[in-house]
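Exercise 7. Given the encoded structure of a 136-residue chain, write a plausible sequence.
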């Protein structure tokens, strides 16, 4: 079951400059950066309860975010719904014909399990499902 809007992610070409903007200009709390090797991204999180802002940047200049930045320069990248049972949500949505970017969940930030629904299944919006570490 989907239980919350976990985060909204923005793809950024200059992670340090964007972290500075969100901390100093917008005055948000910064909870740190984390490299997510499975997704080839460097992430930075700003908790803004009950959700968070995630900045995503390519890890070592590679991966899907690198391609996105090449095409668009930066922008709103995805929404993430929190799930209390990701396998159940994947099965339910697959039954309804939703397409996913991978066969099953992989490791996300903060030891979560994550999977992405194909944007063509959701009117062009990339949606991540995320089950936090304490729920699996
Ligand atoms: Co995300």
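Solution.
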């Amino acid at each position: 079951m989907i239980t919350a809007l976990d985060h909204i992610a923005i793809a950024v070409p200059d992670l340090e400059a964007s972290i500075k903007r969100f901390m100093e200009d917008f005055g948000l709390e910064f909870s740190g950066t984390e490299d997510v090797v499975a997704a080839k991204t460097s992430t930075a999180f700003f908790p803004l309860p009950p959700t968070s802002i995630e900045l995503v940047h390519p890890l070592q200049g590679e991966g899907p975010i690198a391609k996105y930045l090449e095409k668009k320069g930066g922008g709103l990248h995805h929404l993430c719904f929190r799930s209390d049972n990701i396998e159940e949500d994947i099965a339910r949505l697959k039954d309804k014909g939703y397409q996913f970017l991978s066969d099953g969940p992989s490791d996300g930030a903060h030891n979560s399990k994550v999977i992405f629904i194909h944007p063509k299944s959701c009117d062009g919006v990339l949606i991540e499902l995320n089950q936090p570490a304490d729920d699996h």
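Remark. The beta strands are 2-11, 32-36, 41-48, 51-58, 75-83, 106-107, 113-117, 127-131. Students should compare their own answers with the one above.
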